Records
---
Amino acid sequence: MLLLLPAVVFAVLYVVSRVRDARRLRNGVFLVAALGCLLVAGVLEVAATGPAQQSAVLLGVVFVGLLVVVLALFLLGNGVTMLRSEGRSLGNLLSLLAGVAILLVPVAAAVLVFGPDVVELPGPVGVVLVALGVLLVFVAGYAAATFAAFGLYSLVYSRYRHTRTPATVVVLGSGLIRGEVPPLLRSRLDKALSVYRSVPGTVARPLLVPSGGQGSDEPRAEGDAMAEYLLAQGADPADVRPETASTSTRENLLLSREVQRAAGRDGSTLVVTNDYHVLRAALLARSIGSDAQVVGSPTAAYYVPSAFLREYIAIMVEHRRLNAAAVLMLAGLVGLAVVWSLLPI
């Protein structure tokens, strides 16, 4: 039960950090660490009660392994669906690549760790191969842990319910199809409209800022097409101010804030995007000093795995120095173990 103590510590850290600011990725790290410690403590406690319980734990481990295989097969199938439905692109290949990685990485690590005969191989080659296998396991574990923190907290944060009437609702663009609003973007606009219409008649309705510039493959700016949709759905023209110059989520947030200020709508801001994008949008809002909270709209089920993977990769890239330092630390530990094993002691 010793692991219950760190579980409680991580749970307290999660609650405190979440209360201070829900828009922190470390909240997800604390949450996953707390749940992980609690799970390991529970498994060890059950395994210590007798042989039958140990057999049950072993069956549980086998079941988890089967679930991982099922997950990999699901991602492979989803990757094929994405290619058929959304076309060929690197982003649409992500779930397919993830499925392949989940199947191949454990095999590659096992071959490196258990395959070479250290005695028969020349010099330190066998030790280096084993070290590479161990490093591969460590890096894969780090990727799995960080994705778990990101994915779980994304789901938690996407359930955020705004309690204040926002002065401005910013709708993030996501691309047009032949100059028209596609279903993915329409879900964001419909969510913004539901917030807009939920405001009592005695209170000033929020400013709607559809945000998005014109891409190289688009005949007009996303903000203009989004504004047209909002007006067609009954929004008051006085409450719709499109932002049409942004080319990224960060620029969406920065330029929309300028639109809000120019319109004289001081007060809280609510950002609307799809549910898979809420956490990254919230992190970006915090990084630019905005107090905006973010809510999500529904996304087609087949699109979610690739979308989450894209968001995860984007966040890892944005925190590349921290992630590089973590990987280098793991490599350093493995390197020290290699040097120690080769010392003539």
---
Amino acid sequence: MFLCCCLALLALIPSSFSISPGVKVKLTEKGLEYGRQLGMASIQQKLKTIKVPDISGTENVSPIGKVHYSLSDMKILDVGLPQSEVDLVPGTGVRLAIGNAFISMNGNWRVKYLRFVKDHGSFDLNVKGLTITTSIAIKSDETGRPTVSSINCAATVSSASIKFHGGASWLYNLFKNFVDKGLRNALQKQMCPLVADAVSDLNPRLKTLNVLAKVDQYAEIEYSMVSSPTVSTSSLDLSLKGEFYNIGQHQEPPFSPSAFSLPPQVNDMLSIGMSTFTANSAAFVYYKAGVLSLYITDDMIPKSSPIRLNTRTFGAFIPQIAKCFPGLMMKLLVKTVKNPVITFEPNNATVQATATVTTYAIQPNATLSPLFVLNLDTSVSAQLFVSGMRLAGAVTLNKMDLTLGTSYVGEFQVRSLDNILQMVLKLVVIPKLNAKLAKGYPLPTLGKMKLVNTQLQVLKDYMLIGTDVQFTG
């Protein structure tokens, strides 16, 4: 259906009402035009299923009197929809108009007159000037997914040209006008129900909307609507919750979405705006799940690195370590101690994280002897990109600041460890993080939806994805 794109181009109608959204979606006139192209094929196939019932009647035809006629075995041969348009009606919804459509069909005819005279043959019918207009109502079901229906439908047939074959041509031309009228009425009655069926056929597809999309074993993201769609003359704007949750435990974060607006002029079918609230809700979920930590051992350091995780390397900077724990391997625990904070500025996405680095010497019996604890404040830049139907990313280290938290080996200069810790972050921690980010997070999607010609830019407080859309089935 033409609305297959309009709605399939994203998640739609409200299932819950809340505060500002974390994600916004703008369906443009270009998107509607793509939907119209998809939908006309669907409606055309529906109209080809018209079942015209047998028509019979009696008319007084001068000069022979009453003529009993019947038309039967009528079949649709072709349906043409050369003109159609889809319009956004501000504050209301979507209007579909089909004009100058035509239907061609054939069938058999029979007549009886003067009590005993019978005749029969076949006929061809061409219906022209068919117009259909309907509005599309959009509502939500109990799961927060959209449902659609056709309302205020009207259909008219301006002309029907019938051509009879076989029998006495002088006879059937006498009652052709009566037959034309009966056929036009029979066709008009079926137009709107078939269009309504074509619209309703979209609903099973809308059931595929990922209102709650699983990310991994820890997190899922909710894309239910938080308010009704806003319809203007140029776009359909949708507001999605766009919030990450721990699986099975929907705990709200200690911050709320801030209002943001998508740019009005776009050349794409679809715009998706994802706010810093959505990104920070993801950070909150993973922090609460306790998974933002990593044990690091020497076998995780590339063999080509001259710096090893052992007491000899660290002893060069902190002599007490080499003296008290000679010849031992070491283990580090990097653990975030606050919820990371993500900010979006024009062309710049930044993550600020506060962590601790706890160092251990590994004794011959595998027990861990704590050496010292460092406080680590880091800033990383994020490159964001769309991969398939997922939002992915990669980070690079901007800067880090080290301070001494606790020492079990006496006082030492923390700055002397800057190079070692930077190496550990760049060679181990950040690659591990990037491997996770490369898997991406699901965008709102519907059925077999594909994003093409996608562009992503980071703006103030949100990122903007501009894209065209294709449906593959």
